[in-house]
Amino acid sequence: MDYTRLRRCIQIVGLVQIFGVSWSLKCYTCDNEHSNFLCNSEINLVECEDGMDTCQTIVGYSDISGKLFIMKECTKNESCQLQAAESREAPCNLELSNWICTQCCYTDSCNVNGATILTYTNVKKSLFLPVFLLLIII
Length: 138
What we know:
Elements: H1 3-19, E1 26-28, E2 30-33, H2 36-39, E3 45-47, E4 54-62, E5 67-75, H3 77-89, E6 99-105, H4 128-137
Antiparallel strand pairs: 1-3, 2-5, 4-5, 4-6
């Protein structure tokens, strides 16, 4: 048995524990912001808790407030998929007076650009689309 190799493995495991090396997912988080820019500061990039394997972004518009709302968070894939399925019931159609779009992604910082899953039927006719895309990119 190669004790040098075993000792090296034990040292590496010890260093990982000492320095707290983490392989957790990192997601941008924000709640009810009106601009994607406000969600994307470095302070909003957080390490997700154990078990959280998905970055979720929800973008919507309410005719009551007349504003976009953006929410980003760490979540579990099942929860995000459920939210996305519910969003499909009130499709991400920019011609509606109220709409919501949900995006699930799975890599570090993947939710930087907001929800991009749009219902493209009738979106071409919408004058709101360029403004929406600018707000998401900014």
